[in-house]
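Narrative summary of target 7.
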Amino acid sequence: MTARPPRSTAALPPEQAGPLRRALSGSADVTVFVDGTAHRLPSDARAAVVDLLARLSDGDAVQVTSVAELLTTSQAAELAGISHSYLRKLTDAGTLPVEYRGSHRRIRRADVEDWLRSQLRRQSSSAEPAPAPSPLPDPS
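Modeled conformation, tokenized:
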């Protein structure tokens, strides 16, 4: 996930807010056009876009920002397939970055997935081919 600064947009002027409000009333269907190609949004994304447009149509200024998916230690341990205590050791050692919300640890899903990929790379690079069997002594 790329960190991007929040983007703020001023409220729409009434002559633009009114028609947008009328278009949104009774409809939650949003199709986005990018370079002339229509893209139908999944329901969660569609709801977020409709909410953004509704706020603009109400004359509100809006701000859009990204939020990383943070996991509890239980969720992160389950995702990684490791014990909670081992996960806590990884965060204490700085192997897995951790954020604190009060006294609670939160771990980014992307960091857990990166750690898992690095473990797989380590395992595959350390796997040596089995040594060739020793030749049998010549019976003659």
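The longest strand covers residues 104-108.
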